[in-house]
């Protein structure tokens, strides 16, 4: 209250400008998403003439067309499946390894930790990576999306820092009661690490959902295509897709789809999961990056 | 006592043994691929075993020199993008300071939530959004028409002269909000007594920003700056791959893209491997250098 009395004219001008500038910034970040959304639910002909604020002649025809097409829903399922499995495994095993690395009595602990941290800074390059994955039999294999990233050095550093703050008394008393390693990990460490685990789960899930390079370079099997790559392919050849959609729609005369609308629709579909989970998980980010700042 | 010691020594091995599979895993996915670097010295062919491949020694290094005009152009693009990004590095810090001056916490949270969103989408989606706005039939052109302004012949996506700045802008759009978070966290960590003391000394809003907040953020800024220097050669691949088109090709080909091009489009696998290896090794040298610099100047290491 004191502050407001003291603010001078330049300060009040600054405040006004500040609010305006921040609102503008927010708009610049959000509007492209909104634009794509209203385009995808507008009549393609009216949309092509230019829409700015709200959908023109609301229609979901492009969505129903894409659902009928089969490839997009299937890719969406593949992406969902890989993201769910990857996130669960990555969080479970990275946390377990991080927990092991907090054990001071462990043999060669420091050496192992350095070995893990150093792996973050190594990058073999495209061709060696490709050859290695192929040698491991991961080419055209669903496991390619899951296995290589399950143990993540960066996550391990974050989780380890967190677990080190947990008082060891709980663990010790469980040990006295004869609890084994897995019991202690599952029943005590994992539940107590919930905040950092939630943060890591978001990183892992978003990263997995958005990843497409493994798909692009190593998976040709159409059954294993992810939504990101489907979107990329359609962006580069939307015309042909719109044609096939139009052919399938042939019987219903009224339905019109344009290449642009198809692109927008697939974009909306591929962003939707992120936008949906985003607000619920956003509060964890600061916590996570704070921990990262300590060591990162 | 004896049983306790026994228990601890048993645990020494127990934890080590449980860790072993994880260590093997990291070895397999982070270290084993490094052996692929030997292909830089052979004529790699996918059909052959290493023992059957022709050893070419330093020939591939000579190839870099032979293609020096091309390599020079790629390096120019790489460094241009890196330096432009470093030049804009203060932006997230400054905007985080501005955001901190906003008193309404709900508005502040809204700004933070919305500006962070672009960080969480893939470059493919960014391309799609950019295409819907900047392509010839996109929003930007139809807005120009709406106000009866001249529509440029070439859209931004195909504008060769503007490529670097357009890509820089996209990079800022995607990373600004995320970059702000670390500064917002750092501001929260500044001792509030400092503000109190400065206020008593008569400092206004601007005085506090300049003399308390800004110096409080300087260490964070410095660390991030050093890290970005160590990443001079790593622009990333996604962005330049998805925004690539023939009209902007000569300006958008950065090192990561060039490695991909030589491998996937030209099929010169050994040359691509060599380039990737040199990039990694140089990046490591840069990292150790800035780390050394950091130790000397701040007494703290980065890694």
Question: What report would you give on this structure?
Answer:
- The complex is a heterodimer of chains A (296) and B (303).
- With 296 residues, chain A is mainly alpha-helical.
- Chain A has 16 helices and no strands.
- Chain A has a single domain, classed as MetI-like (MetI-like fold), CATH 1.10.3720.
- Chain B is mainly α and 303 residues long.
- Chain B has 2 domains: 1-57, no CATH class; 67-298, MetI-like (MetI-like fold, Orthogonal Bundle), CATH 1.10.3720.10.
- Chain B has a two-stranded antiparallel sheet.
- In chain B, helix 4 (90-100) packs across helix 8, helix 8 crosses helix 10 (205-230) and helix 9 packs antiparallel against helix 10.
- The mean pLDDT of chain B is 90.
- Chains A and B meet through helix 2, helix 5, helix 6, helix 7 and helix 11 of A and helix 1, helix 4, helix 5, helix 6 and helix 7 of B.
- Chain A: Keywords: Cell membrane, Membrane, Transmembrane, Transmembrane helix, Transport.
Task: Note the run of SSEs of chain A as H and E.
Answer: HHHHHHHHHHHHHHHH
| Average pLDDT metric of chain A | 86
What is the rounded distance between the termini of chain A? 39 Å
Q: What's the total number of strands of chain B?
A: 2
The stretches of 5 or more residues of chain A where confidence is low (pLDDT under 50) are none
CATH topology of the largest domain in chain B: MetI-like fold
- What is the CATH superfamily label of chain A? MetI-like
Output the structural class of chain A: mainly alpha
Quaternary organization? heterodimer
Measured between the Cα atoms of the first and last residue of chain B, the distance is 39 Å
* Strand count of chain A: 0
Helical residues, percent of chain B: 55-70%
Broad shape of chain B: globular
User: Would you identify the CATH architecture of chain A?
Assistant: Orthogonal Bundle
Tell me which protein chains meet in the greatest interface and how many residues each side has. A-B, 90 and 89 residues
Domain ABC transmembrane type-1 (chain A): 76-281
GO biological process, one term (chain A): transmembrane transport
Transmembrane segments (chain A): 20-41, 83-102, 111-131, 143-163, 184-206, 262-281
Family (chain A): Belongs to the binding-protein-dependent transport system permease family.
